[in-house]
Specification:
The protein is α/β, with parallel strands linked by helices and 325 residues long. Helices cover 29% and strands 21% of the residues. Strand 9, helix 7 and strand 10 form a beta-alpha-beta unit.
Length: 325
């Protein structure tokens, strides 16, 4: 049976405090180390913890490396991590990974991963965000902590669905045990460590259920994607990649007679970003109904028209909040 792999990074206090919160709940047995780093297997659920002694953003292929060392198949990776923001405001946040908006495509990216490439989004993304909001309320964090998703960004590169769950946003918050316990609640229920069926398991759906399941591909807006977050919060949709406006570089043609509804599509990284994020989301949600959600107010009219034309070409519909119910 394939296992879910939780990865802890020793230099990251927000990561280690989450790992400690999980291990302290019991039900774990330490196994043979992998690449010299400690590992645990859960006693009743197919979940492993790998406690790395190094940082993770530039550690490509961690799923395959763990498979080789532990002699198990890895179905998904979840990184327990810190979040940094210049605002320093406390937050609980989660996101999938990749660097779709960077170029030249194929080169190593500054914060891990490969420019122009993305990692398969973990289907648990949306359901875990909703469960995170509940956990934050249970631990009396909502008056202090912002609860948000983030758009797709940074490395490392892996070959299985991946998710980062984070405590932010500065050193004064990274070691908050109450925030770690909130995430431990999410992970415990989310991966079935409590004996339940888990949350956000796409593989558990029947073919009929997948056909009607709506999966959001978010396009545009800021890094914390408030309008896409709102859709996830208000509906029971699933979520794939969320593409920030900064990953959608678009150059308006110089021709003064250029018509956005019929002329050549603008140059820039934007089309590549949408294509690779759509392909990755489709691969992560086979049989699902992928629907784009545009942060319309973040685009100029000619940009919206260009994106709509590309979506039509890629055979993906564009929806509003009500279309994700």
């Amino acid at each position: 049976m394939a296992v879910s792999l939780l990865i802890i990074s020793e230099p990251d206090i927000a990561s280690t405090i989450q790992g400690e919160a999980l291990l302290s709940r019991g039900g774990w047995t330490e196994t043979t180390s992998v690449e010299g780093d400690r590992a645990w297997a859960h006693d009743t659920a197919p979940v492993h913890i790998w406690w790395l002694n190094d940082r993770v953003l530039w550690q490509d292929g961690l799923d395959e490396r763990y498979e080789a060392g532990a002699k198990v198949e890895v179905s998904e990776v979840i990184f327990l991590s810190r979040h940094f923001a210049a605002s320093g405001r406390p937050s609980l946040t989660l996101h999938v990974i990749g660097v779709p908006g960077e170029s030249p495509v194929g080169e190593a990216a500054e914060f891990g991963g490969v420019k122009g490439e993305v990692v398969l989004p973990n289907p648990r993304f949306a359901s875990w965000f909703r469960r995170m909001c509940q956990a934050a309320e249970d631990h009396s964090l909502t008056s202090e902590f912002e609860l948000t998703i983030e758009t797709t960004h940074h490395g490392p590169s892996l070959s299985v669905p991946t998710l980062f769950v984070e405590i932010g946003s500065s050193e004064s918050h990274w070691d908050r045990r109450d925030a770690a316990e909130a995430w431990a609640d999410v992970i415990t229920e989310g991966l079935g460590l409590d004996g339940g069926g888990g949350l956000g398991d796409w593989a558990a759906l029947s073919d009929a259920e997948r056909v009607t399941a709506k999966v959001m591909l978010g396009i545009g807006g800021g890094h914390y994607a408030p309008r896409h977050t709102d859709v996830i919060r208000k509906t029971n949709c699933w979520a794939g990649h969320q593409i920030a406006g900064y990953a959608l570089e678009m150059e308006r043609p110089d021709d003064p007679d250029w018509e956005p509804t019929s002329g050549p599509l603008p140059a820039g990284q934007w089309a590549h970003s949408i294509r690779v994020c759509l392909e990755s989301t489709r691969e992560a949600f086979p049989g699902g109904q992928i629907i784009a959600h545009l942060d319309r107010k973040s685009f100029k009219g000619w940009q919206r028209q260009s994106i709509k034309r590309l979506c039509a070409e890629l055979e993906i519909s564009i929806g509003r909040t009500r279309d994700f119910d």
